[in-house]
Amino acid sequence: MKDHNGIKIIGIDHGYGNMKTANACFPTGLIDYDQEPTFKQNLLIYDGRYYTVGTGHKEFHGDKILDEDYYVLTLAALARELSTQNLTTATVYLAAGLPLSWVSGQTAAFKDYLLRNKTVDFIFRGVNYHINLAGAAVFPQGFAAVADKLSTMAGVNLLCDIGNGTMNVLKIVDGQPDPRQMFTEKYGTNQCAIAVRENLMRRFHTSVDDSIINQVFRTGTADIAPEYLTVITDTAREYTAGIFRLLRDHEYDPNLMRLHVVGGGGCLVKHFGEYDHDRVTILEDICATARGYEYMAEKVLRRSGGIR
């Protein structure tokens, strides 16, 4: 969170797997209820409805404004970030993002979606929040994670942002992004998780809890029987090999350029990929993109003289 003349700039990375702010991360899951549910640990109450945040799984869709889910998840993210400074009331400037190839076509609608209410009141985890929304900016997803590092990116670089739903690729030459060389592929880590579940069912005729799969993705291992672990890790290696095939399709040449991997999929590349460690940089901070949104929003506000 940044402060601009008393206005809190809060970056939110609306992922399909996790919602991230500069200081918080929680699963992109949401269950709504007509009545107050039994378990209230992550309960959000808004507009007469009850929502359990961080439970369930958000299905991938190319348009994030088709339902109320991301709006409610945005409120939860604001509460999580404000709570780091013990704030319950604030005027907020939202900084968000969209996949590279979607920014130009969906920015206006996404901003309207996020700013539908200039003032919003809700309860999260038993705490009342009152937020005034002063505005919003939408930036290219993934690029934001390296926006403050462009001066160090001499020569030819390829940025690869691997999220839960999409993989975004952007060419950066001498610190300047090339808009002619940016691509969005539906090849996020959820594709790997689907393949893992299919392979486990085919081999052992059983399902495995997502938490186990996610642990292997994050750490490279888990406390499970070796034969199950082998299936998961073999599938993860096949998936990461697919990442590099797609990168080569977009003219990636490790001899001529450096590769920068951001997003949650970076841990899969780290544990299961085959690459030159001297020429590939993996940014493991899952909140880096949200911080990048704040960095870019602050620059915009300074150049423009503030919110008008």
Q: What does this entry look like structurally?
A:
The protein is of the alpha+beta class. The protein folds into two domains: 156 residues, ATPase, nucleotide binding domain (Nucleotidyltransferase, domain 5, 2-Layer Sandwich), CATH 3.30.420.40; 94 residues, Nucleotidyltransferase, domain 5, CATH 3.30.420.40. It contains eight helices and 16 strands. The protein has an eight-stranded mixed beta sheet with strand order 1-2-9-11-10-7-8-6. The protein is globular and about 50 Å long. The two termini are 21 Å apart.
Question: What's this entry about, in short?
Answer:
The protein is an alpha+beta fold.
What is the total tally of β strands? 16
Secondary-structure element string: EEEEEEEEHEHEEHEEEHHHEHEH
Strand content: 25-35%
Number of helical segments?
8
The major β-sheet equals:
8 strands, mixed
Show unreliable segments: none
Mean pLDDT: 93
Distance between the termini: 21 Å
What are the SSEs and their pairings?
Elements lengths: L1 E3 L2 E5 L1 E2 L3 E3 L4 E3 L2 E4 L9 E4 L2 E5 L15 H15 L5 E10 L4 H12 L4 E6 L2 E14 L2 H4 L9 E7 L4 E7 L2 E10 L3 H16 L5 H10 L6 H24 L8 E5 L3 H7 L7 E3 L5 H17 L4
Parallel strand pairs: 2-9, 9-11, 12-15, 15-16
Antiparallel strand pairs: 1-2, 3-4, 4-5, 6-8, 7-8, 7-10, 10-11, 12-13, 13-14
